[in-house]
Amino acid sequence: MSLxxxxxxxxxxxxxxxxxxxxxxxxxxxxxxxxxxxxxxxGYEKVxxxxxxxxxxxxxxxxxxxxNRAQVSPCQFRDVIEDFLx
Length: 86
Known about the structure:
The protein is α+β, with helices and mostly antiparallel strands. 37% of the residues lie in helices and 43% in strands. The chain has a three-stranded antiparallel β-sheet.
């Protein structure tokens, strides 16, 4: 691997997190969201986050697997989530 490649190599990591989602009817649910991290030669940083994507763990696991495998760009992240949920 060349040094130039190492400086250009960027990967993305998608991680789930949980939080309490409150509805207008005063109901509370455990919801899952996703954070996007950008990794490069200098380290990593969180670049985006979406709360309240789903309340289903299985659905979240599947979505994370797809995002990480495809290395979806943060620029397309929100569109992919919208398409996945529709």
